[in-house]
Amino acid sequence: MDIQLPDIDGCEATAQIRSLNKDNAELPIILAITASEITVELQHCLDFSCNDLIRKPISEEALLERVSLHIRRSRSTPSTF
After folding, report:
1. By the 8 A CB rule, do 1 and 44 touch?
2. Would the CA dihedral through 39, 42, 48, 53 be positive or negative?
3. DSSP letter at 2?
4. Mean pLDDT of 50-63
5. Which of 24, 27, 36, 46 has its C-alpha lying 20 to 30 A from 74's C-alpha?
6. Does residue 68 sit in helix, strand or coil?
7. d(CA 6, CA 37)
8. Burial 54-80 (b: 16+ CB within 10 A, else e)
9. Mean per-residue pLDDT of the chain
10. Cα separation of 33 and 10, whole Å?
11. Distances (CA, A) of 36 to 1, 2, 20, 52, 55
């Protein structure tokens, strides 16, 4: 989820996606993507239920590593968001 979107910021979009989970279905893994290095903004992403964040510029290797990590975690632990 890119944090800077044209009409709504990515944190709010993530919160809206999370709020759609009415039946306790398996939740999607959402990684925040940002160029920001401001600690408050980064924590804000995680506060809105992003599973993790990746800073731009994104390397394919870093992205695949994060996605793999969260897939392994989701298989071993139910989501709690």
Report:
1. no
2. negative
3. B
4. 90
5. 36
6. helix
7. 20
8. beeeeeeeeeeebeeebeeeeeeeebe
9. 82
10. 9
11. 14, 11, 28, 14, 7
Contacts of 14 (CB under 8 A, 6+ apart): 1, 30, 32, 45, 48, 49, 50
The answer on pLDDT for 3 being more than 70 is yes
| Structure tokens that stand for 9 in this block | 């910021």
**Which DSSP string corresponds to 21-66?**
--S-PPPPP-EEEE----HHHHHHHHHTT-SEEEESSPPHHHHHHH
Say yes or no to pLDDT of 6 above 90. Answer: no
Triad 73, 3, 76: Cα angle to 5°? 5
